[in-house]
Write a structure and sequence with these properties.
With 201 residues, the protein is of the alpha/beta class. The longest helix has 36 residues. It is globular, with a radius of gyration of 17 Å.
């Protein structure tokens, strides 16, 4: 079985976003993990309109060409780590919209989160975990929460994320969890596919 492929999804598209900093940091840590392949997926490359389809793609094919391209990209991966900014006690609208624009492509794959902002993005991450469960994903327990003091120190150039050992430890645990679940669930999905082929034969 080939190594699971993990997407690091950049969950903000603002020109002044902080997301690039934790994205580069967590991607470097993830790429050092021997058991997975890693790709950064930037929502700026998928300029989705606010959801405007007749139904979820679980029930009807999407008509929007960017949505189709997004769904194809999501389907390539065996697991996901999302950067999650917190705005007004929740995740960014652009990330929730992107999640809503795919359906079956998320199923039976792990999801992990790197939160930042007020209270380390904890409320945004908890909401995203609920969305992940509805999409039959497996949100992992480990997460990274870049608390406000750390966020400001990094934003103002006083510190780098890699200098904050408590965050490095949290990131390593997150990547380990996502890698483990990605491997297990990929094998299970492949076993299901084989069983379906046998049933159809």
């Amino acid at each position: 079985m080939s190594k699971p492929k993990i997407a690091i999804v950049v969950g903000s598209t603002r020109a002044a976003r902080f997301a690039d900093v934790p994205t580069q940091w967590i991607a470097k840590i993830a790429r050092s993990h021997a058991d997975i392949d890693v790709e950064v997926v930037d929502l700026r490359d998928f300029p989705l309109p606010f959801f405007d389809e007749v139904a979820s793609s679980a029930w009807a094919p999407s008509q929007n060409e960017v949505a189709k391209r997004w769904q194809k990209k999501v389907a390539e991966f065996d697991g996901f780590i999302f950067t999650a900014a917190e705005y007004n006690h929740g995740p960014t609208a652009v990330l929730k919209n992107a999640i809503d624009y795919a359906a079956n492509e998320w199923n039976k794959k792990p999801a992990g989160f790197v939160g930042y902002g007020s209270v380390g993005g904890a409320r945004a991450v908890e909401q995203l975990r609920l969305h992940a469960v509805e999409l039959q994903m497996a949100p992992v327990k480990s997460a990274v929460h870049i608390a406000w003091a750390d966020f400001l120190a990094v934003r103002q150039g006083e510190k780098k994320l890699e200098e904050l050992e408590h965050l490095n430890q949290a990131a390593a645990a997150l990547v380990n969890d996502v890698a483990w679940w990605a491997k297990v669930l990929k094998a299970a999905r492949q076993a299901d596919a084989v069983a379906e082929e046998v049933k159809a034969a």
